[in-house]
Amino acid sequence: MLRLLTIAILSLTPAQINDDSFQQAVLRLSGASTLEELSESELERYQSLSDHPLDLNSASRSQLSSTGFFTPFQVASILDYIRSDGDICSVAELAAVPGIGLQLAKDLEYFFTFRPSGVLGAANKGSLYADARMRQSVKNGRWTSAFKASSSLDSRYGAALAIKDGALTSGSLSYSGRVLSRVVAGNFSARFGQGLLLWSGFSLSGFSGVSAFTRNASGLAPCSTFSPESSFCGAAASVELGHTSLSLAADFQGVQLVNMNHLWKNTTAGVSAVHSPEGYWISGDFRSSIGKVTFSGEGALDFASGGSAALLAGVWNIAYGKKAALLARAYSPSYSSPWAGAARSASKTSDEWGAAAGLQLPWLMVSLDAAWHPSKEEAQFKGIVNLQKSFGAFTPSLKLSSRYRPQAAKEALRNDIRFDLDAAWGRLQAHIRLNAVGCTGWGWLGYMEAGWKGEAALWVRATVFGIDSWADRIYVYERDVPGSFSVPAYYGRGYALSLYAGWKELKLRLSTTRYPGSDKSPSWEVKLMIGMKSQNLRPMLSPMAGE
Q: 523: how many CB neighbours lie within 10 A of its CB?
């Protein structure tokens, strides 16, 4: 009865497909509270997943895990549901799958399709997509260019490459199946456990939301990015035998890695080992659910330096939309993994003892974190309060963030106060922000943005700011062409204007920042992106049936 009620509620709820709702979905899935906290490579990943949605009903365990959206238990729950009850045919039915829920299902509609698997469960074979994007930009007289292309056959065979300023930054050939779940040649990401040893690419630091207290491992996955330092480059493969998976990889820099993971009914556990020219590392991780509480943790040893690290987290799912979390961590000063991305307050997963707590309600998020860095004898305390509630077409939000470093002679206390107001009337949308930051002094910024979102899109933004100290600088995410990431740091006194226009696969951005009455030179940028996309083509020669 509850499952039928859930499906009925979602079926009667119109989907709000627009840029702002997509951004909110990205924030909830990533654990970040603002887009400014994410990196270019991470937003690239979400945009790529959205451009090429995965077919949920024919996806393998490794394909579902590689998105990073699910826990091992949620992946198992989706596969069990499809085996026992048939295809998942809508977002509403996905919400009824045990362990998924309403909000997660709505967020996932940007990244999945629900095509029927065919007669007697035979997967659709022979579908082909291919796309390419070329970007040209000039900023203050300096020209840059970028090109990215990808294709997939039958959702199993993939190819991708990225070129920036005439140089190849990444490329990969990949295969996804059932038993041989993943094979990659070229650039790939490796994310296992809670990130204490292996978490290539971006990982969120700090505790902006309860989702940031734990990691959802994505394993091995092909990677196409303009930031090659965020991935490995070599060869990788994963094999699945029942509920046990084995992953092996090696890159051209002399790094070899192995991971073995096993899933029981309510517990998953794994072990990882890495060898590089600098030495050896090993880690063990687990995740276990007891009632409404999920525990996760990892411990690691760095044999090169003799260091060690460990973390333990617990998340309590109180009720729908309500969660509480605790996390404790101890990373010795001598522990150092170049690929780590575990929960932390600093830039590196090293030299830190800490504890954090978080509470998530439908309209409120609170997090507190205390960290101590033994080798530097430095401490940091940070608190975040985020309030957000919708009133019809209007959604106001208020974020308060405070950071205190008692040992600092200057810039010991930093306070950030931000008010946002989103409004939507059909395809017409508007956004207002007022932001103040106080550290050595007080800086302020405000902007208004209005736009029309449809087959053709047009957005205009006007920003004013007054920030006299670099310590009080304010970062702001700005709308940009796909594959680009604009988060300028505003400093000084002046104004900025930007225009974004799009029609199908043609995108244009114009922007300028000026400082009246100052000797600081104005800046300007013009960016154009042309894309080509083909979806669900039927090649003349289809691949052989079977895995």
A: 14
Q: Compute the chain's Rg from CA coordinates.
A: 23
Q: Could you read off the pLDDT of 281-332 as tens digits, one per residue?
A: 999 999 999 988 999 999 999 998 999 999 999 999 998 889 999 999 999 9
The crossing angle, in degrees rounded to 10, of helices 19-30 and 40-51 is 120
347-392 pLDDT tens trace: 899 999 999 999 999 899 999 999 999 999 999 999 999 999 989 8
Q: Which of 15, 12, 221 is nearest to 110 (CA)?
A: 15
Neighbours of 375 (CB within 10 A): 11
Pairing of strands 54-55, 112-113: parallel
Which tokens in the block code for residue 250? 């090696």
CB 430 within 8 A of CB 439: no
260 touches 245 (CB < 8 A): yes
Structure confidence by residue, pLDDT tens digits, 425-461: 988 999 999 999 999 999 999 999 999 988 899 999 9
pTM above 0.70, yes or no: yes
What confidence tens digit (pLDDT) does each residue in 145-188 have?
999 998 888 778 999 999 999 999 999 999 988 889 899 999 99
Q: How many CB atoms lie within 10 A of CB 237?
A: 17
- What token pair was written down for 305? 């330096």
Q: Return d(Cα 304, Cα 322) in angstroms, integer.
A: 43
Return mean pLDDT, the chain.
87
Alpha helix (H) ranges present in 31-71?
40-51, 61-66
Question: Token pair for residue 539?
Answer: 């090649």
Query: Which of 401, 297, 497 lies closest to 36 in space, CA to CA?
Result: 401
Q: In the structure encoding, which two tokens stand for residue 53, read together? A: 């949605």
**How much is the pLDDT for 380?**
96
For residues 248 and 220, what is the distance between their CA atoms, to the nearest angstrom?
9
Residue with tokens 């092996």: 248
Contact 336, 305 (CB under 8 A): yes
DSSP string computed for 200-255: -S----S-SSGGGGS----EEEE---S-GGGSEEEEEEEEEETTEEEEEEEETTS-
The DSSP annotation for 406-440 comes to TT-SSS-EEEEEEEEEEEEETTEEEEEEEEEEESS
- The span from the CA of 22 to the CA of 110, in Å, is 7
Sequence-separated (6 or more) residues with CB below 8 Å from residue 317: 292, 293, 294, 323
How far apart, in Å, do the first and last CA atoms of the chain sit?
37
Bigger pLDDT: 202 vs 293: 293
Name beta bridge partners: 296. 287, 313
* Tokens 């990533």 sit on residue: 30
Q: What six digits make up the tokens of 59? A: 């996806």
Residues 217 and 441: their CA atoms lie apart, in Å, by 41
State which amino acid sits at residue 418: R
Whether 138 contacts 120, CB under 8 Å: no
Lowest mean pLDDT among 111-120, 229-238, 452-461: 111-120
Whole-angstrom CA distances from 544 to 124, 153, 164, 541 are: 12, 12, 36, 9
